[in-house]
Specification:
heterodimer, A: alpha+beta, six-stranded mixed β-sheet, elongated, B: mainly alpha, MetI-like fold, 2 domains, 27 helices, 76% helix, 0% strand, binds adenosine-5'-diphosphate, binds magnesium ion
């Protein structure tokens, strides 16, 4: 497994404001890594530092084992797709795509072949002579991609490349980018604030918050083993509540304020009496109808049950006042009435202990 | 790979501490390097000579320090009279230009954006037409047998020809005509931002239309009106073409005296002292304006008074202004009530719109039509300049092209215009890049330095360069005039290019860099081609500034080296003749063509 990109404690400060705290990150060849996080969390800053568009306040960057921290952008051999595409308005589509090749002093015949090939690849062979403003948003997006692919850069950086497209087109382009990633085996560092996009496209996700990395892992790891309340809340829906550690061992036992206990399968690594949070995903909560056994059981009142197609969202208010959200596949079975008493159950393996605080 | 082994990869070079401390600062200063050529240029050919000429006022003819020059300037009744007359003419010009310009700006501000763009051309057209051509047109019109007197006689308004020229009337007509477009263009940005909802809200509260106008609309216009007043007043202080050609002996302004002191008496201390007075007056008006209104309104935004420490002086002016406006408001309310009684509300609204169009047309006609009279005059078969020649002949055009005086002057103007435009474009564009794309301490001061050739009266620059050049032996050379005109034009270039760069998407440059383009390749293949229309527009403006420039040329041309404005000026002083009409017509056509060319550049600059 060869390392394609590495940032080592790379930092960016604007006067006294940290745009990016010291960040260490590594990408392997052919990987699709996504920087995910709310607006202002430092995603663009990290991308610009890697691209050489911003000078770091500290730290180092390696590409293909070469230290590039002090090299200008042009020498780093990267590709980048900008949110607004940054197509050159005065050049035809053909010349836009040929631009990086001309910068590499390739021959005319070679350039022509390469441009035609990528235009075919993105299914737009007929727009070569047009100007960017004569294309639709989705087409411009694909040209921006083609302009990047054409010179086979070492890594392609994409800063919210689908942010300006409507939902249908966005989903279509997600598949398109994934297809190119697989077909061409390129390494992609992708930026988005859309968690579904990140989950569906990435090999790994780097979750960012407050100018630093919150957690790095595969989509499944981030989803099922969030390391913080922020991670649990940002990806997918979750039930999160405070509790105190009662006992540890192969299984952790937590106690809520009202005296009820929660069993968690793993060793949380916390000492007893520490204040923590626990979390369970809504789809892991079961509405118990026939008295089946569960490691965790809670009783409450059904607030409402909302049918949203393939599944049903069920809100339950527990006796201690907290509200839990359960998600069940719609089965056709009759749902309990509003206000009726219901029982929720989940296994100890589905409950997760999170550190206190955000 | 661990952090340790990664560091081993390529050990960081051990820099010497002094260099490593200096390097980041140097690297941060690098984007500002493009400012240096312009600053050096201005230091050498503007700040140094202007400082030198101003300092001459502190010495007597023998070189000893003295205050006698200023004492003489204030005690000599001749100088004092000139000062008074200069202020009087500038003051009246300001009043007429602002009052006349207001309805034009009002109509333009309230027109639909699309038609506004088309209508502004009619104000820009006189703005671009040479002062000399316009003044010449008034000489044709206002003379004893001029078109105006013929009209007045025919209508029976006067029994004998009125004296309209070589007096205060002629001077004020010419100067207002020259300054009206400036007043309109300065007022317009502020008036465009005024929110019509406010007036509508007042209407629902029961205020009469006239009262709304005076109590709500006018106070909102005040930043624009006062900015226009300041610009017109400062520009008028330095005038000499119009008073010299349309005024009499009594209408001698400060600049004319400075010219006489140098060209006829070679009295440097006196010229310097008067220059100091002229500059001081301009700066005083500027500073007073900044204290009272705030310079921000010049940039189109409304002045933010709450943020400023309001001085006692501005509070007094404020109270006076409010009293006047309230008084007018009540007066207008009374008049408005009479109108409302005579006419139903709807008719009054229609009348309001109709009368604002009528006022707009009257003022625009005043701006455009007089200049057109040079055209028929140029086709006269006779030897006299007449607005109504009663015949057609091309003989005066033939005379122009046959005269080596005119053709060589035209050629020189063209060469100087192109060369100084190129110098201003290169220096100004470099500076504009540094200014537009960097934030640095002292940026406002740097901008003030760049714009100062606009604030210092031209006559002061002219005298200063004449003094410098006489030592460098640059008087009467193309090089000398090219440098001088570049000094005058470079602020326009910087402003224009900065405005273009402000809308430029820098991600295009970043995209090019990531794709492997060097800084130079990015500039040459991406940035410059995209901002080309803006650069052409800036160049054109610089060219026209030079092509139409007389004040500086008056001092720096000489011998066989003459420019078109200088040649026209000499002829106009001697005697007006149909050759001048032919030249004026050619210039009118050329400038109109350039204006429309510039509009095309401006529009395609806004398209990307
Ligand atoms: N040029 C700059 N000057 C000052 N602060 C900046 C600059 N660029 C970014 N920042 C700050 O850095 C933080 C991270 O910004 P950014 O990387 O753009 O976030 P994201 O792309 O995740 O939305 C923000 O708080 C932003 O205000
Ligand atoms: Mg961003």
């Amino acid at each position: 497994m060869s390392e394609k990109l590495r940032t080592e404690q790379v930092t960016k400060r604007y006067n006294d404001v940290a745009a990016l705290q010291p960040t260490t990150l590594s990408m392997r060849d052919g990987e699709f890594l996504t920087l995910l996080g709310p607006s202002g969390s430092g995603k663009t800053t990290l991308l610009s530092l890697i691209a050489g568009l911003t000078e770091p306040t500290g730290g180092d960057i390696w590409i293909d084992g070469r230290r590039v921290t002090d090299e200008p952008s042009a020498k780093r051999g990267l590709g980048m797709v900008f949110q607004n595409y940054a197509l050159f308005p005065h050049l035809s589509i053909y010349e836009n795509i040929a631009f990086p090749l001309r910068m590499r002093r390739m021959g005319a015949a070679e350039i022509d072949a390469a441009v035609r090939r990528v235009l075919d690849l993105i299914h737009l062979p007929h727009v070569a002579e047009r100007l960017p403003r004569e294309l639709s948003g989705g087409q411009q997006q694909r040209i921006a991609l083609a302009r990047c692919i054409v010179y086979e850069p070492s890594i392609i950086l994409m800063d919210e490349p689908l942010g300006a497209l409507d939902k249908n087109l966005r989903e279509h382009m997600q598949t398109e980018i994934k297809r190119l990633h697989v077909e061409l085996g390129i390494t992609i560092l992708y930026v988005t604030h859309d968690q579904e996009e990140a989950l569906s496209m990435s090999d790994r996700i780097c979750l960012m918050n407050n100018a630093r990395v919150e957690q790095i892992g595969t989509p499944a790891e981030l989803y099922f083993k969030p390391a913080s309340v922020f991670a649990a809340g940002f990806l997918g829906e979750s039930n999160i509540a405070p509790a105190k550690v009662l006992s540890t061992g192969t299984e952790t036992l937590l106690g809520s304020a009202d005296g009820s206990t929660i069993r968690v399968a793993a060793d949380a690594g916390h000492r007893t009496d520490v204040e923590v949070n626990w979390m369970v995903r809504p789809e892991r909560l079961k509405l118990i109808r026939d008295g089946e056994a569960h490691e965790n059981i809670r009783r409450g009142q059904l607030l409402d049950a909302v049918f949203v197609g393939g599944f049903t969202k069920i809100n339950v208010r527990l006796d201690d006042g907290t509200t839990l959200l359960a998600k069940e596949l719609t089965s056709g079975q009759p749902l309990p009435e509003r206000g009726q008493s219901v029982t929720l159950g989940w296994s100890a393996a589905d409950a997760i202990v999170l550190p206190p605080g955000a | 790979m661990t952090a340790m082994s990664a560091r081993d990869y390529e050990p960081a070079p051990v820099a010497e501490p002094a260099i490593s401390a200096l390097q980041p600062r140097l690297r941060r200063a690098r984007p500002l390097l493009p400012l240096l050529p312009l600053f050096a240029f201005l230091a050498l050919f503007f700040f140094f000579p202007v400082g030198q000429i101003l300092s001459l006022s502190l010495f007597d003819q023998s070189g000893a320090i003295t205050s006698a020059n200023f004492a003489k300037a204030f005690s000599d009744p001749l100088y004092f009279d000139v000062l008074l007359i200069t202020f009087k003419i500038a003051g009246w010009t300001t009043v007429i230009s602002v009052v006349g310009g207001f309805p034009v700006a009002y109509y333009l501000a309230n027109a639909a954006p699309h038609s506004r763009n088309a209508l502004v051309i009619w104000v820009l057209l006189p703005f671009w037409t040479s002062f000399l051509v316009r003044t010449f047109a008034w000489m044709i019109l206002l003379g004893r047998n001029g078109a105006v007197n013929q009209l007045l006689l025919a209508l029976g308004i006067v029994d004998a020809p009125a004296s309209l020229i070589f007096n205060l009337t002629g001077t004020l007509i010419g100067m207002s005509h020259a300054m009206l477009p400036l007043a309109v263009m300065t007022m317009l940005p502020v008036m465009q931002t005024i929110d019509g909802n406010l007036s509508r809200a007042a209407e629902t509260l029961g205020a009469g239309r006239a009262q709304i106008f005076w109590r709500i609309y006018i106070p909102q216009c005040m930043p624009g009106i006062s900015a226009a007043a300041m610009m017109v007043f400062i520009s008028s202080l330095g005038f000499f073409i119009t008073p010299a050609l349309l005024g009499g002996a009594r209408e001698t302004m400060l600049t004319q005296v400075i010219i006489t002191q140098i060209q006829e008496l070679l009295n440097w201390p006196a010229a310097s002292t008067l220059s100091v007075l002229l500059l001081a007056a301009s700066i005083l008006v500027f500073v007073a304006y900044d204290r009272v209104v705030g310079l921000s309104s010049l940039a189109g935004g409304s002045a933010d008074r709450s943020a400023r420490t309001v001085s006692a002086w501005s509070r007094i002016l404020d109270v006076i202004g409010r009293a006047v406006v309230n008084g007018l408001g009540s007066l207008c309310a009374g008049i408005g009530a009479v109108f409302a009684w005579l006419l139903p509300a709807r008719a009054f609204r229609g009348l309001g719109r109709g009368s604002s169009l009528a006022l707009f047309l009257i003022v625009v006609a005043f701006l455009l039509i007089p200049t057109l009279f040079v055209i028929p005059a140029s086709f006269t078969p006779g030897n006299a300049v007449q607005a109504n020649p009663g015949g057609f002949s091309l003989r005066w055009y033939e005379a122009v092209f046959a005269s080596s005086d005119w053709t060589s002057a035209a050629w020189n103007s063209l060469v100087v215009g192109l060369a100084s435009g190129a110098v201003a474009l290169v220096l100004g564009t470099m500076a504009a890049f540094a200014m537009a794309w960097n934030r640095f301490p002292g940026k406002t001061a740097a901008l003030a330095v760049i714009l100062s050739p606009l604030i210092v009266p031209r006559i002061v620059i002219a005298v200063a360069l004449f003094f410098l050049y006489s030592k460098l032996e640059l008087v009467g050379t193309v090089t000398g005039l090219v440098i001088a005109h570049a000094v005058l034009a470079v602020p326009y270039v910087v402003i224009t290019v900065m405005a273009v760069l402000a809308t430029y998407d820098r991600r295009l440059d970043q995209a090019a860099a990531v794709m492997g383009a060097s800084r130079w390749q990015t500039l040459r293949r991406i940035t410059l081609p995209i901002i080309k229309p803006g650069l052409l527009s800036a160049f054109l403006f610089a060219f026209v500034t030079s092509f139409d420039e007389l004040t500086v040329a008056l001092f720096l041309t000489g011998g066989s080296f003459n420019t078109l404005p200088r040649q026209m000026w000499s002829d106009l002083l001697l005697q007006i003749n149909p050759t001048l009409a032919a030249v004026a017509t050619l210039l009118l056509v050329l400038m109109t063509g350039l204006l429309f060319l510039n509009e095309r550049f401006r529009r395609s600059a806004g398209r990307h």
